[in-house]
Amino acid sequence: MLALAVTAELEGVTDLQPQDTEETPFYYTFKVQCTSCREIHPNWVSVSRFETNEQSGSRGDANFVWRCKNCKREHSANITDTPKSYSQQSPPKAKNIIVLDCRGLEFVEFKPDGLWKAVGIESKTKFADIDLTEGDWFDYDEKSSEEVSIKDVKWEIRRA
Ligand SMILES: [Zn+2]
Questions:
Q1: Ligand 1 centre and the CA of 78: distance in Å?
Q2: I want to staple 40 with a disulfide (CB 3.0 to 4.6 A). Which of 32, 33, 91, 134 is the partner?
C-alpha cells in the first residue's frame, strides 16, 4: 500500500482535505512507475475513487487501470478509503490523505491539481475551492477578522 501524505503550515484554518464527493470527484494526479519493467512514464495520470474501470482477464474493476507502454503489462490501483483531513499543528507533521492499493505500479510523484477545503479553527468558517497548485494559499476570515493561510505545502508518497 502507498499513501499520499501532506505536510503544510496551516494558519487560522484546520481540516484541510480534498473536495472529493461523488458530485465533484477529486482527480489525484500522479506520475506512475511500472514495477515490472521499472519504467517511469512521462505523462501525468489521474485517479478518482468514484471511477471504475474494467480490467482484462476478469480481474474485476479498479479505480485506475493502466497498461505500461514499455512492457505492455496491465496494472491497477484502488483508493482504499475516504480521504482524511489534515489538522493544523505546530510544528507541521506529515499525514496520510489517501491510501492506494497498487498492483504492478507505483505512484512516484503527486501534482495537486484539484480543489481543497478547510475550516476556520475558532470561527468554523468554511473555505472552499482552495487551490494548492502554487504551494501557498492566502485568504481572510471575516468572522475572526484574521488572515488565514496554508504555506510550505509538501507532498510525499510513502509506504502505508
Ligand atoms: Zn512496464
A1: 18
A2: 33
The rounded Å distance from CA 112 to ligand 1 centre is 25
3-state SS record for the chain: CEEEEEEEEEECEEEEEECCCCCCCCCEEEEEEECCCCCECCCCEEECCCCCEECCCCCCEECEEEECCCCCCEEEEEECCCCCCECCCCCCCCEEEEEEEEECEEEEEEECCCEEEEEECCCCCEEEEEECCCCCEEEEECCCCEEEEEEEEEEEEEEC
CA of 86 to the centre of ligand 1 (A): 34
CA of 38 to the centre of ligand 1 (A): 6
- All three cell numbers of 7: 505536510
Q: What is the pLDDT of residues 66-123, one digit of tens each?
A: 999 999 999 999 999 999 999 999 999 999 999 999 999 999 999 999 999 999 999 9
Q: 63 C-alpha vs ligand 1 centroid, how far in Å?
A: 19
Please answer whether residues 126 and 117 qualify as being in contact, where contact means their C-beta atoms are separated by less than 8 angstroms.
Answer: yes
The whole-angstrom separation of Cα 28 and Cα 143 is 32
pTM equals 0.93
